[in-house]
UniProtKB/TrEMBL annotation:
It comes from the Bacteria. This is TetR family transcriptional regulator. Residues 9-36 form the HTH tetR-type domain. Keywords: DNA-binding. It comes from Thermomonospora umbrina. Gene3D superfamilies: Tetracycline Repressor, domain 2. Pfam families: TetR_N. One of its GO terms (molecular function) is DNA binding. InterPro entries: Homeodomain-like_sf, HTH_TetR, Tet_transcr_reg_TetR-rel_C_sf.
Length: 191
């Protein structure tokens, strides 16, 4: 697979994002990429796809995390960075959404290996940007779930379905997300 690794990973990423891990076979990847997978298994390729996706996300968000400030503006910039990456790489939300919907359950260490370390790091930053009574983990998850659903489905409004690639839908979604994040970051405990 070494010579055609990029082609195989691009093809497998597209297939896994569209169909999910469980529905894709090694043969499908080989045929769609026009390559011989050699000794690489579907599992090996899936792990390589996820590793590459995570590396790309981390490289994109590294400056955002480095410049993070523990306030509402920092929280908005952080989530904007995640939204921008997700819009530019819609395969990432799709890959994770398949996983969350019980795809690839035989990969038992997968979440701890690929998701949890980043989530812990980012949730710690979110925790510094929200008041103590706010659950930082759920704030982060709410943003991620919302972004993933928007990227995959766009908006459904009175004018019909607007794909996430529609600049007006993006602006409307982003403004609403900013409002929600600012409300969370400046909220007071319920009395």
């Amino acid at each position: 697979m070494a010579d055609d690794e990029g082609l195989v990973l691009d093809t497998a990423t597209r297939l896994f994002a569209q169909l999910g891990y469980d529905a894709v076979t090694g043969r499908m990847i080989a045929e769609a990429s026009g390559t011989d997978l050699g000794t690489s298994t579907k599992h090996d390729i899936y792990v390589a796809v996820m590793e590459r996706t995570i590396r790309r996300r981390d490289a994109y968000l590294e400056p955002v995390l480095r410049e993070f400030t523990p306030d509402a503006d920092g929280l908005v910039r952080l989530v904007d960075g995640f939204l921008d990456f997700s819009l530019a790489h819609p395969e990432m939300p799709s890959l994770w959404m398949h996983r969350w919907l019980s795809d690839a359950q035989d990969l038992t260490d997968f979440d701890e290996r690929f998701g949890a370390p980043w989530m812990r790091e980012v949730a710690a930053r979110v925790g510094r940007a929200v008041p103590p009574h706010v659950d930082a983990d759920l704030t982060l998850w709410t943003a991620i779930w919302t972004i993933n659903c928007f990227v995959q489905g766009g908006l459904l409004d009175a004018e019909g379905r607007r794909p996430s690639s529609d600049p007006r839908a993006q602006q409307r979604f982003r403004e609403h997300l900013h409002l929600v994040l600012r409300l969370i970051a400046t909220s007071r405990p319920a009395t």
